[in-house]
Hints:
Blueprint: H1 17-47, H2 50-59, H3 62-77, H4 80-103, H5 109-137, H6 143-172, H7 177-194, H8 211-224, H9 226-257, H10 262-286, H11 292-305, H12 316-329, H13 331-344, H14 350-375, H15 381-399, H16 403-406
Helix pairs in contact: 1-2, 1-5, 1-6, 1-7, 3-5, 3-14, 4-5, 4-7, 5-14, 6-10, 6-13, 9-10, 9-14, 9-15, 10-12, 11-13, 11-15
Amino acid sequence: MTEPQEATGEARKGPSPFALLGAAQFLSQFGDSIFMIVFIWLLLDLTGSKSVTGFAAMISYLPALLFGVLAGFLVDRWNRRRVMAAADAARGFLLLAGGVLYATGLLTAPVLTAIAFLCATAAVLFNPARDSILPELVSAERLVTANAWIQTSQQAAYFAGPLAVGVVIQQWGVGATFPASVLLYGGSLAMIVAMGNVGRAHRGEAAPARAYDDFREGLSAIARDKTLLLLLAYTALDNLFIMGPAIVGNAVMVRETLHGDAGMYALVEATYGLGWGVGTILVGRFARRVPHGILLLIGITLDGFTYVPLFWCRSLPYLLFVSLIHSMVIPLITVPRSTILQRIVPRERLGRVFALQNVVVVGMTALSAGLAGVVLEKIDAPALFGVIGLAAGAIGLLGFTSRRLRDL
């Protein structure tokens, strides 16, 4: 997969803004992945309670639900590069403070949870700004490849995060993960600053003068777009079926079906990151000629059916193999979906739409995880994967009956 060309034909010395964006994405997500692993570990250490740890983890989802739509509105009105830079600076500062508190023995579970909440709030701004700035950096015909590049860097970071945490803790202890994350956010900030004068706001000459009117007009336009609403509805359904088993089901599978430990679970999660990254590269290289709507529906269908083989899972190699295949399918959803949104949504509303998509994904993920936990009290993990896989695959097949989705 070759790097996408920039949208402008101007010569530029040094790395292109798009290359710098990819590097910033990798470093920022690397910092996120390290902190989230340590966040859960430290909560268990500080509280000794699984229920308190679960509640604190749930709180880390709240910023996307509470501030997601507002964040998209702000991204559309502010310079998107500066929004990303401010988000990285804020997360770096928060983890620097967390590291100092940990080193001095003053870090408590409530303080750590507050740090996680504020870091997630910064991410709510960073992510839609990143997705919204992309059409400025590459030509329209290269958006599929560009989205694949960006998502590849994201998955590479999620794969590297668990591996890096193990090395850092073994060599220098848990406290060393705080400065490690600070350095990663600082590197991302440097890449963003080096991008230059990009990421301007796209308000449009006819945009209302008052912020409230602009906010209301943007939401009304989204509500009137039947294609967009249908796309978001299918995103919601896919995440409702899939994400709970992915988050809760995998852990229960390792713990109760395979009688494994946390190291085995980390290996499964790393396999997801590896497969997602490989799948993204393949989608970016070979899928540009397939209609985006068809590609998306194929992805949703396979996202479900590739869970079904886990019904017969009784060994770690089997789980790793199926997890690898399943995770390679995920980019068939995420890459064309981002490309479709960047193509059908006016630039002055892209921030709001990507933020709304994030609200849908996070909301359904939280609901799905809760439902999966309840269901797993009644049936075992292999049965959950088998039933959910069939249902989710059927949802994908149903989507092929919609000409609106097929023609995207």
